[in-house]
């Protein structure tokens, strides 16, 4: 992964292959955004003609616009990469962290294949240094594990130096260190999502977790198919029984000696969702390796909490199964007995996520966490409702739903609060079982949430994130978001763990 350094060198003295500066839209052309004295120094090196040189080659300062110029003699870095920041903030106002994060990410992407880039973006103001660092690292991500030798392409930007006059201050190094941990854990989730299903089945996912966790002091417990059967995990077993690769339930835990609260996280880990006997059509199955994005986010978050030494216990549950059609698959109409004893009539085997999640939620509630959040690529309906870049937030507690939604905003992730209408439960009635796994089509994302709520017991405070839209980017890269796996919800969950550690969980 990309190497990170903070430096108080100036943009015209740092030895690098490129210097990144910010550009804002001005009334009569682009204006270099003041950085750590950076833009000013670069402008000086250009004899005061940086803005006009950039304008000459078409720069406007639009958000994420990239313009390259060679530097004049005397500047060690041979290249200036100017990245647009859009309209300048009001006088005296800081840049929005997400603006900086995206700009840094766009610049890092544009520099793929380079060895070393210095970022001279505005890093004063709350969270600006963290945002620039995080964006640059997230934008530098590449996934080449499955490219043939010699076909790896440009490769990621290898070294990032963030220029910061306060580089020596402890609070600055701490902010950069946090950004590095968060970016590396987002990258871990992206790697897991991008790994094709023939290389990541439930057992392999569990083995990866088992081998990675001890390094960070994270406990691991794996329930294989035998122990799942002994424990009565009918949802996970019912979904996994059609596959040659048996299911797993993995429990990971970061335990802090200073913890006053426990946050439990449950992630949907369908390593491939074919739909099962309710088979998905061509056009709907090509990206279904991404259906374990929730479990990936949960594992990354638990590791991040450990690496950051957060004063909170974080328990993660990874509900891992492969949903395949075969002679041993669950049939539409079959009834499963879930963990805890509720029965479910499976009317559509493609509504499998809620079945594995139900078992894991019921199990997680037994440990009486102070809060429980599940993360799942659960419904296409959520993408219809909120699009491809925004995840839905539902909860059994209004204040907690607001807290989670605001936490996502703090982390720079788009989310939106949604209700769990009680009347939708009526649509999940079954003549033969306690519940059916599908109900009303209208508001299908909410119906799925209402189904999950039935498995949240003991008055546990619970939130549900449906990341079906943002987990996988089928379009072109943008800002710090690559094509493919995005690591959706990792930053939100890490921030949530921090807020729980800070005692912000009211009530
Ligand atoms: N994994 C899918 C949801 C999904 C769709 C995630 C597109 C990412 C992109 C989920 O298991 C599913 O198939 N849901 C069904 C539920 C329906 C049968 C009630 C859906 O949304 O169509
Ligand atoms: Mn499905
Ligand atoms: Zn699914």
Give descriptors for this structure:
507 residues; alpha/beta; Leucine Aminopeptidase, subunit E, domain 1; Aminopeptidase; 2 domains; 8-stranded mixed sheet; 7-stranded mixed sheet; 14 helices; 32% helix; binds ligand BES; binds manganese (II) ion; binds zinc ion
Description:
The structure is a single chain. With 507 residues, the protein is an alpha/beta fold. It folds into two domains: 3-165, Leucine Aminopeptidase, subunit E, domain 1, CATH 3.40.220; 188-501, Aminopeptidase, CATH 3.40.630. The chain is built from 14 helices and 20 strands. The protein has helices at 38-45, 50-56, 97-110, 128-139, 170-194, 202-212, 225-231, 234-240, 293-307, 353-365, 380-386, 398-411, 444-453, 490-501, and strands at residues 3-7, 18-26, 29-32, 66-70, 79-87, 116-120, 159-163, 219-223, 248-254, 262-273, 313-323, 334-337, 343-346, 371-376, 391-395, 415-417, 435-436, 462-466, 472-473, 484-485. The strands form four sheets. It has an eight-stranded mixed sheet, with helices on both faces. Strands 1, 2, 3, 4, 5, 6 and 7 form a seven-stranded mixed sheet that branches. The longest helix is centred in the middle third of the chain and has 25 residues, at 170-194. The chain is elongated, with a radius of gyration of 24 Å. The mean pLDDT is 96. Zinc ion (ZN) binds next to strand 10.
